[in-house]
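Team,

Forwarding the record for the chain on the shared tracking sheet. I've put the sequence and predicted structure together so nobody has to dig through attachments.
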Amino acid sequence: MTYTEGFINTSKDLKRVFYRSWSPPEPSAQVVCLHGAGGNSADFTFLAERLSHPARAVPYKVIAFDAPGSGYSEPNSTVPPFAVKLKVLSAILKKSTLRIGLLTSSGGAIASLACLYQNRDDEKFKTIPLALAEPAFGFDEETRSYIKECQVFLGKAFLNLESAEMAWDNSPLRALVFDDNETKRRFIRGRLRPRNGALQPALRPVNPESLKEFNILAGKESLPNPTLAMWGEQSRLRKLFAEQMGASLPNSEEKVFTMAGHPLSLSCNIEAKAIEEFFDKQFIGE
């Protein structure tokens, strides 16, 4: 497996977007990953290394990118991050010569679903399998409350990783499930960047009070894409979106993980196995 990283130039009027890519010698398909509001492309490292491992019977190429203002992607002053995510995602899907799968975490589901709706008349897009990890299809008062509670970690700067871990454990993010402490530490470290002598969450600052309520599923026609919806047992979002998602994505199946909350870490074996089995079923029929 070869790991690469760099920047995607979307257009001359937009800032570059940072990406990570994991590629086996002979990939059978490509999985494109899109993170949620509090994360970045590093969230998918554990899963990408597993999906792209040459020892797999059918390894996949995996690509993940940082939304503008998150990770290593610079914010655009005049173009909303959503518009950039949608443009980058559409470009990646259209250019790929491999079969494509989409994996999204939390709010990454919004741009992914918008991309599929935008290109719904294209036969290539109708067959793209969609794995949704704790999908957030919009914003409401429940989500606003969650973001506020997460500011203990998301809105702070830390002197070291240990203090960041303490803040993590004092926020709703403690509900993320990991197989061991080392994997957890690696995941938390991936969400931080050194800035001004401290470790700060690598995300665009968000004021929950300024966000408007919406639901991208409302009033939309159904899409034929095969879909896996994954929820944590302690999910705050399942009751908000699961029923509507069934109408918008009727060709879907659901999996609930014991003890997990929002978002899913995608860094434990049981979650990775469910995603592997879903994509293997779609691409090789197993």
